[in-house]
Please model this.
Amino acid sequence: MYHIALHFIVPLFFVLLFYKKELFKKQLKVYCILMATMIVDIDHLLADPIYDPNRCSIGFHPLHALWLMPVYICMAFYPKTRLIGIGLIFHMMLDSMDCYHSLKIWYQ
Ligand SMILES: [Zn+2]
Model:
């Protein structure tokens, strides 16, 4: 369960660390963009069952495919897609850490 909390906490720390001198409105906007990247989990709806605690999402679900990881990293280098890329990188890292914690694998 701590895994889900990390999806909210890690972006919050990112904002507090890298946007600490920005106005609250800007910080909130950045946090909302990072949170919006969780929509990537919509690909779980294609799986049956939708949630399986013995399945690693990395490498299994279409938007969690390994070949997309470099795409997400590249997105972080372009200003217009930077926050989305960073949010997706955080998301994939946290999902992978959850796989390792629960299944002892980093990806499916
Ligand atoms: Zn995910």
Remarks:
- The first helix runs from residue 2 to 18.
- The helical segments are 2-18, 24-36, 69-75, 82-103.
- DSSP finds four helices and no strands in the chain.
